[in-house]
Batch of 2 targets.
Target 1
Amino acid sequence: HAAEAHRTDLMTITRYVLNEQSKHPESRGDFTILLNHIVLGCKFVCSAVNKAGLAKLIGLAGETNVQGEEQKKLDVLSNEVFIKALVSSGRTCILVSEEDEEATFVEPSKRGRYCVVFDPLDGSSNIDCGVSIGTIFGIYMIKEGGEPKLEDVLQPGKNMLAAGYCMYGSSCTLVLSTGAGVNGFTLDPSLGEFILTHPDIKIPKKGKIYSVNEGNAKNWDGPTAKYVEKCKFPKDGSPAKSLRYIGSMVADVHRTLLYGGIFLYPADKKSPNGKLRVLYEVFPMSFLMEQAGGQAFTGKQRALDLVPKKIHERSPIFLGSYDDVEEIKALYAAEEPK
Ligand code: P6P
């Protein structure tokens, strides 16, 4: 009967979020409405990404499609879709997007209490070759009443109420945490619904995979170089780790979350703060990793404790299985000036 119940008792993401809401009787459902608008954006982008090859949506802006219309690049299109969906939810007041230099302050008549930071289509350089890409997002509550200010989105990642990503690959998978664990939902295109397929995801305590761009090895600092060396030539006779690097953060993080291991984007001489952005790449993925029992470290501190000063600030990041991150933390601690 359990199997039967599972097939007919579809737990959609909307039902899941409503269940979460029912645990907060004081809630007015604003958060549920906001999440539903984010889910709508993900469904639209999923459909656009899947059609990209056919509708010549890929490639550079300026190409014209069969209707002779000016084609928008997928990441530009995705950004517009999310901005419109978030503003129309009537629950947001500040939006920070990887695509927009400045933060968007929502007009007063449509304002709500939430600030959303997002990368509408991360890894978009991989679109043309069909590698999985994704949307990454994080949600803050505005700090206090009154006029929304930029400081309301320059909060440490530990203040996030929720974070997640939607990966557009062989299937469309949305991984979400609202602060009570991590759940994965897969889009059933015939229903147009995200169905709970990965309940209560926990990352293995230790993994057999390391994920880094080895092409940057000549620029790495001591601790990173030592750690990667240890992955490849373990001194304790344990088997070497496998290297898996897709070059699309959502895909590399999703594999790390499900299989275990460690994902590294270290600082190097070329980029002293690494490459990945704090607000809408490092924080949401670090939030998910901690919620799944893993951890996330910047080389200096717990990633979620970082207080950003600018909305597009970068940070080095080491995230994944708890024990694997502990090892690289020890190597950085050993380098600390006494
Ligand atoms: P590199 C994609 O461009 C991205 O922003 C992330 O999705 C990915 O993890 C990283 O950059 C890859 O960077 O320097 O290894 O190509």
Target 2
Amino acid sequence: MSDHKVYPVSAEWAASAWADEAKYNEMYAESVNNPDKFWGEQARATIDWIKPFHQVKNTSFEPGNVSIKWFEDGTLNVAANCLDRHLATRGDQTAIIWEGDDPSSDEHISYRDLYERVGKFANALKAQGVKKGDVATLYMPMIPEAAVAMLACARIGAVHSIVFGGFSPDALGVRVEESGSSIIITSDEGRRGGRRVPLKKNVDAAIAGMDNPASVKSVVVVKCTGGDVAWDTDRDHWYHELVAGQSVDCPAEEMGAEDPLFILYTSGSTGKPKGLEHTTGGYIVYAAMTHKYVFDYKDGDVYWCTADVGWVTGHSYIVYGPLANGGTTVMFEGVPTYPDASRFGRVIEKHKVNQFYTAPTAIRALMQKGDDVLGDSDLSSLKLLGSVGEPINPEAWNWYNDIMGKGECPVVDTWWQTETGGIMIVPLPGATAAKPGSASRPFFGVQPALVDNEGNLIEGSGDGNLVILDGWPAIARSCWGDPARYEETYFSTFKGMYFTGDGARRDDDGYYWITGRVDDVINVSGHRMGTAEVESSLVAHAAVAEAAVVGYPHAIKGQGIYVYVTLQAGVEATDELRKALVGHVRTDIGPIASPDLIQWAPGLPKTRSGKIMRRILRKIAANEHDQLGDTSTLADPAVVDDLVANRMNR
Ligand code: PRX
């Protein structure tokens, strides 16, 4: 598709960026031809090690023998890399600019201040009995204490498992149980768009709903809004009381490079969320390096990623990458549309943001409100714009480039996943000409490839399943407590390759264009959702006999959730029931899983062996029922006519 508009790298960017095209080509070639030398040098230059490593890469994607180790005989501490080593040179520099939901509240936290807060809370965690290797669940709003808690865990070698604050008590409870976590760190309430989110109440409900509520020994509560909360005096502790009187000195635990740093649950094509395990050395090397090169981060820059720490983007590109690089990172508690849709512009102006990183869904939501949506905000501090989470359609790309970037900021479309730990495919700002809608070229060490459904490599330009042929330092090491599932999910579809679950096209210039998931995962507003999770929630409702969930194109969210429901015999299909089902899923999983459209389906299209043909359901939901393809294998082809006739209008 070389007919697409191409935005060349400007001479100024090529001259000033960390990597221009020649440097990218040279570094990329070395990273794949001589990974031990390349990553050894990068890891020594980027990160401070306690004991140096001698072994760099030790990875195998072979079925039955999947094993991934990086820098395995080295030791380090991630919190010390994000804090201690910066104190001498930048102790007074702002590490975190916190911008509250309420536009009049903000806070600048210096590296020294952050170091002290982390030290105190790390000691408080130890006093609660938290030890190296223990799992701590964080269920927090976007307040500085979330970053403090992450770094405090890293400091003492505890493994954090952050559950997004928008998840329901049930979803939280399952993740606490699965991770074997005996401590939960939360706040009384969170603030979002002028509303309050009852986090502590949700934690109480989550614990009450667990098989073994007594397994949660302690709940640490940050006083955030001062709202009323229920209190269990044996179990609950105020954060401010725990840290009062604690020393700021807490020795950083010496961690093996392959010791776990965090777990993060994400949705897959089967019902249960998977806890991806990320380890210490490879992760932090890759997070820091990608943050530096992709955003061209330079000393003194103010960098803002609008994600939530509940997602991997918040881990790697609000906290770990920027702080490892001694950067200034903005942490935003609110939403783009509160108090009004000019908020992003106001915050960029207020904090003189240089690099801005957000999701296409936010861009589309603003775009819809018109070109003057950011008001009279001064956006002249912006140097670079980033996009993540879903394919960015060229219209949104152009708007981002023209209206926010004034045509002067490189737009970096970053493709990656919870599993990959860091950015994998991206046009580096000084090196790679951008094509709107294409994530373009691999980062150092990343070897993407396309395969057909039989696993044959596709050469040259073409369409296929996106796989990665060899290991990179930040790839997840396992599914927590279930290594067999890890191997089965990612390395068994195409033997010897990491399967991303995404489809992609490669053009004549070797650019990758991500076309979306090829499995039963949908991407709603950049949030990943397993259709099976929503289905199992629906069938748990007494009125529902059967449910099938698919994604459909949605103008703002990218994909919306389209549900086909077969009711139990005798249940009446009413609008009230529709609302009740939406409410049921919201309570069960969280608002992000709310169905957008529910169609009553007297029957679902199934093969003679009883398998639901989702391909057909996707086509009907997308209003492409003229492209249903072969329906002759259906047990009852007449079902399809009914579904087409009663398709829900958007
Ligand atoms: O389908 C791809 C899409 O988001 C999926 C990963 O979701 P998650 O693990 O939640 O991580 C999101 C943030 C890294 C991918 O399999 N995706 C992510 N970024 C892009 C994207 N699709 C197209 N273009 C992107 N830039």
